[in-house]
Amino acid sequence: MAREKWASKLGFMLAAMGSAVGLGNIWRFSYVAGENGGGAFLILYLGFVFLIGIPVLLAEFSIGRQGQSDVVGSYKELAPNKPWYLAGFMGIASSFLILGFYSVVAGWSLYYFWNYINGSFWTIPDAGYGATFEGLISNTTTPLFWHGLFMVLTILVVLTGIKKGIEKASKVFMPTLAVLLVLLAIYSVTLEGAGEGLRFLFQPNWAKIDSGVILAALGQAFFSLSLGMGAMMTYGSYLPKSESLPSATVGIGIMDTVFAIVAGIVIFPAVYAFDISASSGPPLVFITLPGIFAQMPFGSIVGLLFFFLLSIAALSSAISILEVPVAYFMRRFKWSRRFSSIFIGVIMYFLGVVVSLGFGVWSGVTPIGDLGILDSMDYVASNILLPLGGLAIALFVGWQWSVKEALSASDMTNLGVRYVWLGIIKFLAPIFIVLIFLQSIGIIG
Ligand code: ILE
């Protein structure tokens, strides 16, 4: 059977942007920035996106498009009898870990959407949004229902195939989300206390930087660009060889970053206006945003629209994560797309059940240090596996491929910046990633 293909280059770009823009830009970016001191974190994050993220993204697309296979198959195709494909399995492991918690958070977003439809969140609940949110996530069954619903939607899109599903939806929803976020940002900066929030986000306090903050910024750059997990490699593999990659890659990277910054401009003024701690972790946006909506004119409609679009953004990212193992199992075991999507989706659902219970009956379970179940899975995936996946990608393109192969696979052959890119892929990115690791485990100071 012929391999599936995107309908057009624009379709590919939108799908890849759909993958990049998701909960990572709004939910994860804001709380990780909040926990890691704001401004200085932002600068590190931006540095990593442009210096390492976007160049490695181009390398990841190139491997996928050249290999024309899934994350394991592409490596095997391009370097038979070499152990590179093990990096592919690492990507599959990341996709399970990430979707395991991603779908739970997306379920919370769907629940919020529903509460804006039925009117319960139009005014501040008696207990306040904070306690209401805590009540939701510590409940045993309610979050499981919404998380299940989200997984069903994700599976449905993935089993419909590449072209018909999200390629269409992304065209409408992403621009709408962008417009809405900008409007919210304009509103948010008028809140009392906004200045303090903006200072927190934009004024670097270098004293806050330590090895943990650096690792967190690297992890966030990878997470947000969907990098190192094989999603972009798999998406790249559905692209015909005739389409050019560099401009698409830069477009995707910039767009993803702008979304994160604008989301920060929405959230941090509200954090200060409502006197919430910036370091309150994963619940942050679920408490601050409804607070903004409750104060603004037509807030209930804005809230409804916002959580609808956030859920859609999460969906277009989740499908790219599910696609990683689905594509692998389809090829490796000759499973149908339908069977593969359902089977793997269900396994991921159950992983999510563990994550969800981690906020309730299992809230005392802390697999790594004092990190709960979600945070532990996120730590292993985002701060360790994704950068390692990125390291493998950079080494593969930089060293396994000849200069000629690398330049032609990435369509960089005639571009002036080709040696800059190659230098980053060969030296800078691997060295940075390794140094950051060594530093975070305390080997270098
Ligand atoms: N890049 C997306 C996001 O930022 C997903 C990350 C795919 C796992 O939400």
Automatic annotation (TrEMBL):
<dbReference type="GO" id="GO:0016020">
    <property type="term" value="C:membrane"/>
</dbReference>
<feature type="transmembrane region" description="Helical">
    <location>
        <begin position="339"/>
        <end position="359"/>
    </location>
</feature>
<feature type="transmembrane region" description="Helical">
    <location>
        <begin position="379"/>
        <end position="399"/>
    </location>
</feature>
<keyword id="KW-0813">Transport</keyword>
<dbReference type="InterPro" id="IPR037272">
    <property type="entry name" value="SNS_sf"/>
</dbReference>
<keyword id="KW-0472">Membrane</keyword>
<feature type="transmembrane region" description="Helical">
    <location>
        <begin position="84"/>
        <end position="114"/>
    </location>
</feature>
<keyword id="KW-1133">Transmembrane helix</keyword>
<feature type="transmembrane region" description="Helical">
    <location>
        <begin position="172"/>
        <end position="191"/>
    </location>
</feature>
<protein>
    <submittedName>
        <fullName>Na+-dependent transporter</fullName>
    </submittedName>
</protein>
<feature type="transmembrane region" description="Helical">
    <location>
        <begin position="248"/>
        <end position="272"/>
    </location>
</feature>
<feature type="transmembrane region" description="Helical">
    <location>
        <begin position="42"/>
        <end position="63"/>
    </location>
</feature>
<feature type="transmembrane region" description="Helical">
    <location>
        <begin position="419"/>
        <end position="444"/>
    </location>
</feature>
<keyword id="KW-0812">Transmembrane</keyword>
<dbReference type="InterPro" id="IPR047218">
    <property type="entry name" value="YocR/YhdH-like"/>
</dbReference>
<feature type="transmembrane region" description="Helical">
    <location>
        <begin position="292"/>
        <end position="318"/>
    </location>
</feature>
<feature type="transmembrane region" description="Helical">
    <location>
        <begin position="12"/>
        <end position="30"/>
    </location>
</feature>
<dbReference type="Pfam" id="PF00209">
    <property type="entry name" value="SNF"/>
</dbReference>
<feature type="transmembrane region" description="Helical">
    <location>
        <begin position="211"/>
        <end position="236"/>
    </location>
</feature>
<feature type="transmembrane region" description="Helical">
    <location>
        <begin position="144"/>
        <end position="160"/>
    </location>
</feature>
<dbReference type="InterPro" id="IPR000175">
    <property type="entry name" value="Na/ntran_symport"/>
</dbReference>
